[in-house]
Amino acid sequence: MRRLGFLIVAMLPGLAWAEPVVLRVEAKRGPDTAAVVESWAARFPEVMTFPLSGGWTGIGLGPMEREDAQAEMARLKAAGRIPRDSFIVPVPAGAAPVTAAAGGADAEAPGADAEADTVEDASPRAGAGPAAGASTFAPASPAGEPPAAEAPAELPAGDYLRLQRYDTRESADAALAEWRADFPEAGLWQQPDGGFAITLGPVAPGVGEAWLQAFRAAERVGRFAAVLPAADLGEVLDEGADPQLPPAGEAAMPPLDEVQRALRWAGRYDGEIDGTAGPQTNASIAAEVLALRAAPDAGSAMQALIERRAAWRDEMGLTPLHDPQSGLSVTAPMDRLQFLRNEQGLSIYGPRNESGAALILYRAPGGQQEMLDFTGLVTALGWVPAPERQVSQGSASLIGRNDTHIGQAEARVVDGHVEGLVLIWPVLDAEDQPRIAAEMLDSLRYAPADEAAGDAPADDGAGEGAVDEAPGTTADAAAD
After folding, report:
1. How many Cα atoms sit within 13 Å of 234 on the Cβ side?
2. Helix/strand/coil for 416
3. Cα–Cα distance, 370 to 364 (Å, whole number)
4. Which residues contact 436 (CB under 8 A, 6 or more apart)?
5. Which parts of 20-123 fold into alpha helices (H)?
6. What does the alpha-carbon distance between residue 385 and residue 478 come to, in Å, rounded to a whole number?
7. Please, what's the b/e burial string for 39-57 (b: 16 or more CB within 10 A of its CB; e: otherwise)?
8. First-to-last C-alpha distance (Å) of the chain
9. Distance CA 292, CA 294 (A)
10. Are 69 and 21 in contact (CB under 8 A)?
11. Does the first or last residue of the chain, that is N or C, have fewer Cβ atoms within 10 Å of its Cβ?
């Protein structure tokens, strides 16, 4: 009677009853479907069947209210009586109750305190019911399956990563669009149970599991994620493309301070370079493994990232600069810079070969107020147009841009002195600007006179006059 009442509610949504649901436990297709349904009905008194796409038949327990179904699902999974990936769905269209001809005293009512079966006995009948923990999303073809005529034609070969699963096509299409922002090769399948799977593949044997662990480490996938053969995924709706995911490597994890520098270069990390594996560092590593796609293991992926950073440093001409005026040492793109002059304690480097880059270095006795005076001068001269400011005790950061250049100024108080630099970089190379700035800030230090290499010439006498514009630019370009 309860089952009939729930079915009426399902067909008459205007009735103010709780939503009826079914605890979905299995899908079958083939000549032994009836036997499997009967075996479930022999175990549970309220069993329903409902049609799925591709000729599959869904099997569920219920109907029942959602709150009751959640409690029942947890209890039965813990007891090993239903597969671990059973799930709850609203009563499907076409659902019909099963008359349990074989069900009797042994049938268990939902919520009953019957003794749980062992995992080995989780199948209602040997050879017919679901094996404990077996996937209900991708049932294996039974031995008595009608031959190949019913199988999808020419399924793609290889394993696939099932990244996410959705109940509706609308939700799956929206998720696919989001996945393709990072993984343009992602595809979409309709599974035998009627659900929709976001996939990535094909992948070579043994490769899928390693990448699945990488996706889990980055918290990009949930409990339905799995590595499956194409035959278990169902029907291809949008195959996507081969992601060409490489196998795991054998490299050990590089030193963490170098990893952090490489992650910062990649725009993945903005924390301290302290060589400590904290939550931010670990999350950044996991995210970069997926973005880089060099290897699914963190050690090999981070080694590849470090090598890419080194190649970029060579390409940008990053070399040590020892400035005798300020006594500061910094790694800078010297193939794009040349010394211009010293003015009012500032060492000014302008563009080389019309590169559009410039650098100002400054060091003088002072504290918080003198540091703020330096940042005010930088702003007044337009070196950092319309800056966004971050000021704290002992440090200040300004960054801004206009149509021609990006300006960034950094200042800090160290041992009773204000140390500062200003980087001016062409807006046409905006991608490299934060990388250049990070490399310079990481290397900036005070070098005593006997350590300075004298890379910059001494004061050429050009000036103790007022500093009036960004070096190597017009006043219009320097001003906002």
Report:
1. 30
2. coil
3. 9
4. 316, 318, 333, 423, 425
5. 33-43, 66-78
6. 7
7. bbbbbbbbbbbbebebebb
8. 78
9. 5
10. yes
11. N
The first and second tokens of residue 66, run together, are: 């959602």
- As given in the structure block, the two tokens for residue 67 are 């709150």
Helix (H) or strand (E) holding 254: none
CB burial string 121-154: b at 16+ within 10 A, e below:
ebbbeeebbbebebbbbbbeeeeeeeeeeeeeee
List per-residue pLDDT tens for the chain, 480 residues long. Answer: 445 444 444 444 444 345 788 888 888 877 888 888 988 888 888 999 988 766 778 899 989 988 888 888 888 888 888 887 677 888 888 899 987 554 444 444 444 443 433 333 333 333 344 443 344 443 434 444 444 444 445 666 789 999 999 999 999 999 999 999 999 999 999 999 889 999 999 998 889 999 999 999 999 998 899 999 988 999 999 989 999 999 999 999 999 999 999 999 999 998 889 999 999 999 999 999 999 999 999 999 999 999 999 999 999 999 999 999 999 999 999 999 999 999 888 999 999 999 999 999 999 999 999 999 999 999 998 899 999 999 999 999 999 999 999 999 999 999 999 999 999 999 999 999 999 999 999 999 998 765 544 444 444 433 333 444 555 553 333 333
Instruction: Read off the tokens for 147.
Output: 């031959």
Question: Which DSSP string do the residues of 184-240 spell out, in sequence order?
Answer: TT-EEEE-TTS-EEEEEEEE-TTHHHHHHHHHHHTT---TT-EEEEHHHH-EEEE--
| For the chain, counts of helices (H) and of strands (E) | 12, 20
Largest Cα span, the chain: 105
